[in-house]
Design brief:
Helix content: under 10%
Radius of gyration: 21 Å
Number of strands: 30
Number of helices: 1
Shape: globular
Distance between the termini: 45 Å
Low-confidence stretches: 1-36
Largest sheet: 7 strands, antiparallel
Structural class: mainly beta
Length: 480
């Protein structure tokens, strides 16, 4: 572990000390009667530049207390309603079963106010309902993961649902491309022969939500690396693809960039190959040790990955010419369309797993033009941690078209979707009431795949287990 004082000297660290500005405002979850388990420090303004249509702050207040759902599925504030679009194990119109383990999801606009959802299934072969699609859309018949595509009309009725990719493994998250396709990521390093697989896994695949013919004969994008992928974001100006690696035990996951041979993009352009590089910050092997929001590292380097296919050794453990920088569970990744920067999430750092730090994650911003890395936000927690926290482990995050950060909780006990107000309060927006059926005590599955329709009227999200896809509408407060 590096000494933080040494980091300041060697890496030109600076900290914004303006405690009166929103960028240094402490976000406190005031709704918890016994005190919140998670608070948020940092620059929330920067996140609004991630999408050009967003406001400059959250709503003035939350949407009120949650109302108990008589159906026992999803509690929401008064005035909001949900529709169940899809549930695992039910029969689709084509006669197949809807697969399990709903995870990351891309929302794409369609004509007449409709939406197309491309949903990941984070399945192993032994999942309750593995992905089983036509042979032409299947990479490895022995694998259980893949993607479903849902066509949803403007009234949020599913008009059709089908398998758009099969035979992949543990499809966790991914990201949209500027040419409106979905990059789905395998979160595994299993090779042919392991778990019965007939092919190596740990790749990124491209899925077209509009033209299913393009999804025939799936092609792994091997030059983009074979590792525990989580999410990606694409710079539309340069075509550079940024990739996160979800690893929570040392050696830590890396943050990567892929320099494509065909930077102009378009369907299939990533198949032309390119160069994979890993991020390096001198004297900083572990991002989790940084504790102050606003900290800036002004000397970011990129190191070529010796063996992107990880033929004999995991990418993150390979013999780089210099040490690379890693983090705990590098998860969400998205492109800031206004400031032209890439954001990514380090989901948590736990004292029992590594450095003696007590926080539940960070949001980082890399500026490709200035070659700087800044810690925008940090999710703090009580120290020692509350054994039964009100909130814990914010994971997937998205921005509401009405302003405010929306966070999917992935922790212990009850699971929520949380939001932030313009004054920085954290509020509950949704609560999962469906438990996963453990005999000892209720356990509630995490929320995943949150995103909004193009008109901002509907928030789509998933329940990981048991798999449910929701559409939520209601009295969203417009941004100023």
């Amino acid at each position: 572990m590096c000494d933080p004082i040494h980091l300041q000297e060697a890496s030109a660290v600076s900290v914004d000390s303006n405690s009166n500005s929103l960028s240094r405002r402490r976000f406190v979850a005031g709704v918890a009667a016994s005190g919140a388990a998670v608070s948020v420090l940092g620059s929330v303004e920067a996140l609004y530049t991630a999408e050009p249509a967003l406001g400059t702050s959250g709503p003035k207040a939350g949407y009120g207390p949650l109302v108990a759902d008589p159906a026992g599925m999803l509690d929401l504030p008064r005035g909001f309603r949900y529709q169940v679009l899809s549930r695992e194990g039910l029969t689709r119109a084509d006669g197949g079963l809807i697969p399990s383990r709903f995870d990351g999801m891309g929302v794409f606009p369609d004509r007449d106010g409709a939406s197309r959802l491309v949903r990941n299934h984070e399945c192993l072969p032994d999942a309750p309902v593995p992905v089983r699609g036509p042979a032409e859309w299947t990479y490895d018949p022995a694998a259980g993961g893949g993607n479903s595509t849902l066509l949803v009309d403007k009234r949020n009725h599913v008009t059709t649902e089908f398998i758009s990719l099969g035979g992949t493994a543990i499809n966790c998250s991914g990201g949209r491309t500027p040419w409106r396709t979905w990059l789905t990521c395998e979160e595994t390093e299993d090779k042919a022969g392991e778990k019965g697989y007939t092919k190596d896994h740990g790749f990124i695949f491209e899925v077209d939500p509009y033209d299913g013919r393009r999804n025939r004969d799936p092609v792994p994008l091997k030059a983009m690396g074979r590792f525990q992928h989580e999410a990606v974001a694409v710079d539309p100006a340069t075509g550079v693809v940024y990739e996160t690696e979800d690893a929570f035990l040392p050696p830590l996951g890396g943050f990567y960039r892929f320099l494509p041979n065909r930077p102009r993009g378009g369907w299939g352009s990533l198949r032309a190959g390119g160069e994979l590089q890993a991020m390096r910050i001198p004297d900083l092997p572990d991002l989790s040790v940084v504790q102050d929001a606003g900290t800036v590292f002004d000397h970011v380097e990129w190191v070529s990955v010796p063996d992107p296919l990880a033929t004999s050794e995991s990418v993150r453990t390979q013999d780089f010419s210099v040490p690379i920088t890693g983090g705990y569970k590098l998860e969400g990744c998205w492109w800031g369309a206004v400031d032209r920067c890439v954001y990514f999430v380090s989901s948590f750092a736990l004292t029992e797993l590594g450095p003696k730090v007590a926080h539940n994650g960070q949001v980082w911003k890399f500026d490709p033009r200035r070659k700087t890395l800044r810690l925008e936000m940090i999710f703090t927690r009580k120290n020692p941690p509350d054994p039964d926290p009100e909130f814990d482990s914010p994971d997937n995050i998205t921005m509401s078209p009405y302003g405010g950060l929306m966070m999917c909780e992935d922790g212990v006990g009850e699971q929520h979707i949380l939001g932030t107000t313009e004054d920085g309060d954290v509020f509950k927006f949704a609560k999962n009431r469906v438990d996963i059926g453990t005999p000892e005590s209720p356990e509630y599955g995490e929320f995943t795949g949150a995103g909004f329709s193009a008109d901002g009227q509907t928030m789509f999200f998933n329940l990981w287990m048991p798999g449910v896809t929701y559409a939520v509408t209601g009295p969203w407060r417009r941004r100023r």
